[in-house]
Amino acid sequence: MDVLPGNAEPQAPDALPFLAEMLRQHDLVTLEVLNVHRQDITARFTAVFTARHGVKGKMLGQVITFVGCPTHWGQVGLAAGDHALVFLQEINGRLYEHSWRGHLLIEEIEGVPYAVFQHKNLWLSPTFTPKLQPHTRQDPRRTYASAIQLDVLNAYLSELIAQQEQQFNSLLERLLASLPQVVNRFAYTNSKFRSRHRSVCTPRQG
Fold first, then answer.
1. How far is 27 from 175, CA to CA, in rounded Å?
2. What is the four-CA torsion angle of 94, 66, 45, 140, rounded to 10 degrees?
3. 45 pLDDT higher than 60
4. Mode of pairing for the β-strands spanning 40-48 and 63-67
5. Is the dihedral of CA 158, 163, 168, 172 positive or negative?
6. Which terminal residue of the chain, N or C, has fewer Cβ atoms less than 10 Å from its own Cβ?
7. Least confident of 31-45, 79-93, 119-133, 157-171
8. CA separation for the pair 190, 206 (Å, rounded)
């Protein structure tokens, strides 16, 4: 396995797990890019990790067009022939790639599949997840990028997705459990308001 540089730093205690915020607001798919026209990207979805923010499970295997991230200094867009992990979100009926480093290219390095993230020396970042550090290396083709062993990253992402779904389900259960109390409280408050309103509006007899 790749050797982790000795100056790798431990993760900051208040840091969000790597890619957690993207997963919270976007769906994750793998795809093969067929065509690129400006920011319009046509691709075939080869795997669907989540379908919560506009991506549908039935899109698996289909050819879909979405809006790619803007390309500029520090960010390289997808190109025809690319195979990648991509974070997508529906906005006004269209799927958009996350606007900043919204994809990880999938490539083989020395015969091993890796996911390439556009961040130099990623393992040195204090916000990077420690469990991924031993499986991360410099991309030999791109000085600005790091490569994470794909099977390890996929397992990490699946675990992160399961954790987020568990948190969501737990929150939903708490909300549903508190719903009767909220309804009863509303009914009680509404009853008191109506009673007070009737006493004010009822004309005096005399």
1. 24
2. -140
3. yes
4. antiparallel
5. positive
6. C
7. 157-171
8. 30
